[in-house]
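Late entry, evening session. Most of the bench is empty. Finally got around to the prediction I had been postponing all week. Sequence below, unchanged from the version circulated by S.P.
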Amino acid sequence: MEAPSLFAEIGATLTRRARLRVPVFVGQFFLPRVTPHSRIAHALFAVFKPIFGSLHGGSVYFACLVAMMATAVLALFWRARTLQRQRCQANLQLEEKKAEVARFESGQVQCSLLVALLENTSDLVYFKDLNSRFICVSKTQAERFHLADPAEAEGKSDEDFFGSEHSQDALQDEREIIRTGLPLIDKEEKEGWLDGREWWVSTSKMALRDGRGQIVGTMGISHDITKRKQAEEALIAEHAESELFINSVPSIFVGTDCRAHIIRWNDAATATFGLSAFEVRGKPLFACGIRWLQPAMKEDIESWLQMESAHTHEGLAFERDGEKRFLAITVKTVNFLNEKGAGLLITGVDASERMNLENQLRQAQKLEAIGQLAAGVAHEINTPTQFIGHNLKFLEESWPTVKAAIGRRQGEVDGSPAAAPMRTTTIPENVTDDDLDYVLEEIPRAIEQSLDGVQRIAGIVRAMKEFSHPGSGENRPENLNKAIETTILVTRNEWKYVAELVTGLDPTLPEVCCSIGEINQVILNLLVNAAHAIRDKSADGKLGTITVTTRQVDGLVEVAISDTGAGIPENVRARVFEPFFTTKEVGRGTGQGLALAHNVVVKKHGGSIWFETEVGKGTTFFLQLPLVRAGNSEEAPRGNHSLPLPELGNPVR
């Protein structure tokens, strides 16, 4: 039953009970509009019908009005809920429509972005189906295919453009992606084209899925890396060329990082040390397998890292196959690429053979000097030998007289048989008591002079032995004053006729770490040069003076040898230490003495040598040697001459 007819029935019922008529508009107009659902009307009718049936008169009319009002309120409440529900449904539908529109617009945007990407990207972008046939390609890919329109690639495969090798590799990769769903990232591959072109690309491929997540094909992006590969190949070729060049150099070439760990090692280093680059790379230089003979090699290498300028090391000793060998190296701190801090660049050679030859040459020069001094040394030995011989002859001639005198006096004392042989000795008639007293007085003197002569001969022989000994060639603590005295004694015959030699040797001088045989040779050369300079100046035979002093200056030991000769002309001073340069006439000099002195003092001992000269007054040569062996330097600093010289002693005779 519809709402109007239902409420009409309610109104008729109320009219029959209350003999009143319900306005028609209530049942026919108002109620149907507030109670659109007939089930509400039925429910209200079922509730109020028993009540209305028990009422009479005005009560019925009032109850009817109350029921109608209650019905209206309930109907309005229900209507409001219904409208609210409809509004919510409408809003949901509106939101869904908006979302659908947004998705559509987003899809349109994404589609336009994809189109823009495919049109403008410089990378090669392509989509393929499950059979690895192209669905869509970017404009750049189409141009690489020599196609006028990207759509022309649709339905084609790699075999239509690439060689078989690359096509098969790409097909296998795509089948694997379709099988596993796993992407392929940054695979560098060489593309060989049918027209002979070759390109290097870095390719990433992944599975292409539909809206349900099912794999429907593959997509890929390839980035052209041909220029990078060409640059890498050029760099590799250049590196190989550099390695070939470095390994072709006959010199040792070793590089380390800031911790002195080896990072470069050439073939010459392998040949010198018997260790390959593979064996030493990454190891510290002081513990890489080389048997260094320096006990503090680790500290020495660490000190190299702190030096700013290049420095050289001569005679760096190591052992290989049980043989002691020597290195001559130059060490420089450098900054290698990709390294934090400065490392070391070490270049050099195995100087064992050269050093042996140099030692032989120095020994030959020493023997040559001894040979040149041989006549003087023979004279020095001959002089005491002569007076020893004279004294012995005197003793021989005097002995009969002494013997007879002793026997006679012994017989006068005790007349014993033991004295009989002496008593039978006949005393020469011309021997007087005065003669006997003279003999007794001179014999002790003769013995004393003979002993002194023997000591002088022994000293000369000992000095010659010490001077001529080849030595070990190693630097060790030595008494420099004693070495100077030995050299003075050996050269005595060279200077004693032209000069007085005065010494001022510091008695507190500490021992010096040096090769004493080499230093002896330097002192000898300087003393001989000083004697020659004085001889050339003193044509009148007037004696000059040679002064030799030692002292300690700021951690260095200084030796000064000065003469009162003619001095060195200004025009030759710059060439004094040059090999084979000499101002002496032929036969008096080879030009090797000062060159040898410079090499020994500066390069071998890390010291310095220089001179001060004044024409007409003389020259002083200065040598400075470190008390502790330091790194060698080609540029030796000049010493400080402000300290007082040791007190000079008496002239040496």
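Two things to note before I forget:
Residues 17-38, 630-647 have pLDDT under 50 and may be disordered.
Residues 371-463 form one domain.
Will write this up properly tomorrow.
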